[in-house]
Specification:
Keywords: ATP-binding, Helicase, Hydrolase, Nucleotide-binding
Pfam families: AAA_19, NERD, UvrD_C_2
CATH superfamily of the largest domain: P-loop containing nucleotide triphosphate hydrolases
Protein name: ATP-dependent DNA helicase
Strand order of the largest sheet: 1-2-3-4-8-9
Radius of gyration: 27 Å
GO biological process, one term: recombinational repair
Helix content: 25-40%
Distance between the termini: 39 Å
Number of strands: 25
Number of domains: 3
GO molecular function: 3'-5' DNA helicase activity; ATP binding; DNA binding
Length: 588
């Protein structure tokens, strides 16, 4: 609770804006109720300096002017002539425009209106002059052109003594938690997390990024940056919010999002499509964000056709090499999801495709760099067996990475089971200790107990459990994800399912709305569901070659962390030595 400031700070803020920021920060220093202060947000095409949301007072908008009296040559109720020759809008006219635009925006959501179609909460606007005293405003006659309700004036002397009550005109207006979420997501559609259009997504675990996630997405410095995190920590959501934030701040920018597999690409595209109407209303140019798999991107960049006799080596080495030779700096930002599955040359292609930009960093230094954002989890690297050498790629990652420690999807039992399973292999134990913090430092939205069950027997037994979940326990087909080792296993399970249920089943690598999905472990990245079945874990056996053993363990790790509610682990038999037997022994 308390005041969440998003982003924490902006190097481009004026001295007056910083003064207002510090004043609000000090006013809320000991306040424990929920409140949000947004710095330089946008209401469609309008750009107020601050929006303050208070769960007990309502919403107030600030317009800040660093003006002194000598800077104002002439003023009327619409325009101000300044000493530097500029003519600008009267800030009170602007503040009232903000008020009208915000009212229209908030009325779009029924939850924010009462039975008379009025907003349930109070909406206020303030014009603040940190360097202009009320006496000078009065003596100069500016009070006549500044008196334009509902906007109220806060002069420098008033700012020094102002309290929270005065920012909200001494009115109380309680705003419920779901109403605050509605306000935040109307202002910033990109922070919506729940996605009804994508039935594979976790069911209403969170409806908006929490304050820390939102602050992170907007506060990530320009230049290259890497975010890693536990499964279900919102890495993809943050990547998407970051992409939208960039095109919102820079409407002319071209942004590329790259994934390894098609299922994750489809998930991101579905999310963008679900936000399209809201983002269009906020004048965000969604068409400037392009989503692609890496191999499609490399093909387009290289401008070559796939040879009839293509090999894994051609896709992974020869194609990227040609693409690097022909790549141009075409994108203002490139964002990579599941970066750990990208080979070094793939990252090199991303780097070469980025334009260089000059920006002011957090130390207020003017620097030049590329906007490359990487999101992933090293422990889920099922395609790339080697660590990236960032130095050889020309990227200095020191001080430019963050670890997300809270999981919104996978429960503590699932993560604990998955990590302990990995740590039974010495090299993986080193990776867990290197890339993660201790289990005690992780936090979970979902502290479930008894979230893992074991099924021993044939595919008929899986079919019976699916039937029970849908027909007796009220789950929908789209709440269930079944993972198999090979495509033929997916088809065999589909044949065993109840005929009626089978009508709502898809064997696919892509997300398909309203269907129970059966796919392979390799294609499960980007997928999630309340109920997940891991099929034939007894066929995962220790391998003599360490590299293969590690890959199989990571494959199971990915599968074990797809569920938000219950994980069913199936084996034909748990009697023979296998990873299935190891997992059951961990639980028992």
């Amino acid at each position: 609770m308390g005041l969440h400031i998003i982003p924490n700070d902006l190097p481009s803020s004026t001295p007056g804006e910083r003064k207002v920021l510090e004043k609000v920060r000090s006013l809320y220093k000991d306040v424990q109720r929920e409140a949000y202060l947004y710095i330089q947000p946008r209401i469609r095409h309008l750009e107020p300096d601050f929006i303050l949301i208070d769960s007990q007072r309502g919403v107030t908008i600030f317009e800040v002017k660093d003006w002194e009296l000598s800077y104002i040559n002439r003023a009327d109720r619409r325009k101000i002539d300044l000493a530097d020759g500029k003519q600008v809008d009267n800030p009170f006219c602007k503040a009232n425009l903000y008020h009208t635009a915000a009212q229209r925006l908030f009325r779009l959501h029924d939850i924010l209106k009462n039975e008379r179609n009025e907003l349930k909460f109070k909406l206020h606007t303030n014009v603040i002059f940190p360097y202009l005293h009320s006496n000078k405003i009065e003596e100069s006659g500016l009070d006549q052109v500044f008196n334009q309700p509902p906007a109220q004036c806060i002069s420098s002397d008033m700012l020094s003594t102002v309290n929270i009550n005065q920012l909200f005109k001494n009115e109380f207006s309680f705003v419920e938690e779901d109403e605050i979420i509605a306000i935040r997501t109307l202002l910033f559609p990109e922070i919506k997390v729940s996605c009804s259009d994508n039935q594979i997504s976790t069911k209403e675990l969170i409806t908006a990024l929490d304050a820390e996630q939102e602050r992170f997405a907007k506060r990530v410095p320009y230049g290259h940056y890497m975010v890693t995190g536990v499964p279900g920590s919102g890495k993809t959501v943050l990547l998407l919010a970051r992409a939208i934030h960039l095109v919102r701040e820079h409407p002319e920018w071209k942004v590329k999002i790259l994934t390894y597999n098609r299922s994750l690409k489809t998930k991101i595209e579905n999310k963008l499509n679900s936000l399209a109407a809201d983002l269009a209303f906020m004048n965000v140019r969604l068409e400037n964000i392009d989503v692609s798999t890496f191999h499609k991107f490399a093909l387009d960049t290289a401008s070559i056709c796939v040879p009839q006799k293509n090999t894994v080596k051609w896709w992974n080495e020869e194609l990227p090499e040609v693409a690097i030779q022909r790549a141009q700096s075409s994108y203002d930002a490139v964002l990579v999801d599941e970066y750990q599955d990208f080979l070094d040359d793939w990252i090199r292609l991303c780097v070469k495709s980025c334009k260089e930009h000059t920006y002011v960093n957090n130390q207020k230094e003017t620097v030049t760099g590329i906007n490359l954002f990487l999101a992933g989890d090293r422990l889920q690297s099922i395609y790339n067996n080697s660590d990236h050498s960032w130095k050889s790629l020309g990227i200095d990652m020191r001080g430019r990475s963050s670890l997300l420690k809270k999981s919104y999807r996978a429960g503590s039992q699932h993560i604990d089971l998955a990590l302990n399973f990995l740590k039974q292999e010495k090299k993986l134990e080193e990776e867990v200790n290197k890339f993660y913090c201790p289990m005690s430092e992780l936090s979970f939205e979902n502290e479930m107990k008894d979230g893992v069950s074991f099924i021993e027997g044939s595919y008929e037994d899986i079919s019976n459990k699916v039937y029970e979940l849908i027909k007796r326990k009220g789950y929908k087909p789209e709440d269930i994800l079944i993972l198999c080792r090979e495509g033929k296993d997916c088809e065999n399970i589909q044949k065993k399912l109840n005929r009626e249920i089978r009508q709502k089943v898809k064997v696919t690598k892509n997300i398909t709305e309203g269907h129970l999905i059966i796919t392979t472990y390799h294609s499960s990245k980007g997928l999630e569901a309340p109920i997940v079945f891991l099929v034939d874990v007894d066929k995962f056996e220790r391998m003599e070659l360490e590299q293969n053993d590690i890959k199989l363990r990571k494959l199971l790790y990915v599968g074990m962390t797809r569920s938000s509610e219950h994980l069913y682990i199936h084996a034909g038999s748990y009697d023979k030595p296998s990873f299935g037997q190891v997992l059951r022994n961990q639980i028992s």
